[in-house]
Write a structure and sequence with these properties.
mainly beta; 12 strands
Length: 191
């Protein structure tokens, strides 16, 4: 019938949880700081990033910086340091950069958009595999006995053919490819 039931053997409507490498662009706005110790063409700048990105950004990573649209220009650089913002209730991640500015165009106080590209491995399931993605997301996993079992998951970003799973699954597990096709029946057979 094409419909799977929890507790019944899983059929051909399953798919493996896959891990894929993806590149994500982290964006934040910041400013060029005072240049008391400008060395050559290196200019210090800082920006506040969401604290959840702390595990993705590390000193030495390359960065691209863009001036405000009314003053176009792009500058390459690298991450110098990371620190949790003090005295801020949100505890933003303070990231400091060193930008190369051979022509001396950057001035203290210039507004800059920072782009940090991070390559990360993520677990993916078909978007249809997740039931109730806005409330209490869960998927149906094929258990060791070949039966479908519901499992809560934490979901991340979505694209056309991948819904990122942040927690609740492991690479290689089998899930129902379409969670909506899994019908719930109580012990007495009612829905």
């Amino acid at each position: 019938s094409g419909v799977c039931e929890p507790g019944r053997p899983a059929g051909p409507l399953t798919q493996k949880v896959l891990a894929e490498r993806s590149t994500r662009v982290l964006r934040a706005s910041g400013v060029v700081v005072d240049k008391p110790a400008r060395q050559g063409n290196r200019v210090p700048a800082c920006a506040g990033f969401p604290k959840g990105w702390a595990a993705l950004i590390a000193p030495g990573m390359p960065v691209e910086a863009r001036l405000h649209p009314s003053n176009p220009g792009t500058f390459a650089g690298k991450v110098l340091s990371l620190a949790m913002g003090e005295g801020s209730p949100s505890k933003t991640l303070q990231v400091c950069f060193e930008l190369r500015d051979a022509k001396g165009r950057l001035k203290p106080g210039d507004y800059i958009e920072f782009l940090v590209r991070v390559s990360q491995r993520r677990l993916c399931v078909p978007p249809g595999a997740v039931v109730h993605p806005q409330q209490s997301p869960e998927v149906f996993v094929v258990s060791g006995h070949g039966r479908l079992e519901p499992r809560a998951v934490e979901i991340g970003q979505a694209d056309e053919d991948c819904l990122e799973v942040l927690s609740g699954l492991r690479e290689g597990e089998l899930v129902a490819a379409s969670g909506e096709d899994v019908s719930w029946r109580g012990p007495d057979g009612t829905r």
